[in-house]
Amino acid sequence: MPPDRAAPRLLADIGGTNVRFALAPSDGPGEGPAFAHLRALKVADFPDLAGAARAYLDAVRPPTPPASGCIAVAGPVGGNLLTLTNHAGWRIDLQATAAALGLTRLTAVNDFVANAHAVAGLGGDDLLTLRRGAPDGAAPRLVMGPGTGLGVALLVPCPEAPGGWHAVATEGGHASIAAQDDAEWALLADLRRRFGHVSAERVASGPGLVNLYGACCRRAGRAPAEEMHAAAISAAAVDGSDPQARAALDAFFAFLGNAAGSLALATGARGGVWLMGGILPRLAEALTASAFFERFTAKGRFADWLGQVPVHLVTHPAPALVGLAGAEDDGAADD
Predict the structure, then answer these.
(1) pLDDT tens by residue, 230-278
(2) Residue 330 binned pLDDT confidence (cut-offs 50, 70, 90)
(3) Which end is more exposed in the chain, N or C (fewer Cβ atoms within 10 Å of the end residue's Cβ)?
């Protein structure tokens, strides 16, 4: 049964910490806003997606209830049952959730596939170009960002795809990270004792910043300040009140640059790198002053190659919802 074209679509961007909801026209955004009634709720406050969606709909009370929906999930997408990589509490049954919400259709994509789909439509106040470089318009584009995890997706040229680009989900954030100096070796050795395998996500995400802060404190022979979460650590780093917080944030940016350069090199992303997520827009000045670009290009004989890759910072508060809103409600979002 096709969805009611007069009813809105329910959109949800589900991360490890927050779920952001919005409503979008069922036939695409057209000339108006991509979506309306943006709200963010805490994942931990609800037993499942259906409960969070009901709370959202009760709060915004749309004149016409949504007939279909599309969700972006921070984890692998395939089949009817989905789980979040960084939140074990939610197990999403697409068919059961659709039935519970009275939707005729509920589709899902990886969250960074949705973010990647948004890239072409972002500009102006939604985007800050950190380095212009010399983009190759026919080359892949890398989209990545630290939040509760480290999301990574790739946009590849595809004439048959809507807009000429196809978004590819990856789990690049779980690739191993390498040290570039003795200080980083010591930090990774500390984290290996705790985790065994140290991925890029273990050091270039919100929890990764907390991991680095703990490791920096142990190296300095002091106990970490109690209950220091990522936002508090970054604030203490920027205002200079905690030297280990400063060291942790410096290492965070360096590891992020290392990972971004390696992924750009591995994927041939001469079209550019788009950084996003909940952390970086608040730290744009600290990012540009950090070792990010030094580590991004520190790839030996391919330093000049990477020096031509543009780097952008997405400042839009909900790019995944922009990407979901632009997907036609005909099954194209299932891949």
Answers:
(1) 999 999 999 999 999 999 999 999 999 999 999 999 999 999 999 999 8
(2) very low
(3) N
- pLDDT tens string 47-71: 999 999 999 999 999 999 999 999 9
17 is in an annotated binding site: yes
Please state the domain extents for the chain. Answer: 9-112+318-334, 123-315
Please give the angle made by the CA atoms of 281, 282 and 285, to the nearest 5 degrees.
Answer: 85
CA atoms within 13 Å, Cβ hemisphere of 30: 5
CATH class of residue range 123-315? alpha beta
Whether residue 21 contacts residue 38, with contact meaning beta carbons closer than 8 Å, is answered with: yes
DSSP code of 2? P
What is this structure's pTM? 0.90
Give the Cα-Cα-Cα angle 56, 58, 61 (nearest 5 degrees): 100
Question: Is position 14 annotated in a ligand binding site?
Answer: yes
Cα 119 to chain center, whole Å? 12
Q: Residue 120: what pLDDT? A: 80
13 a known binding residue?
Answer: yes
Partners of residue 90 on adjacent β-strands: none
The highest-level CATH class for domain 9-112+318-334 is alpha beta
Neighbouring C-alpha atoms within 13 Å toward the C-beta of 280: 31
Query: Band of the pLDDT at 195, cuts 50, 70, 90?
Result: very high
Q: What tokens does 133 get?
A: 């470089």
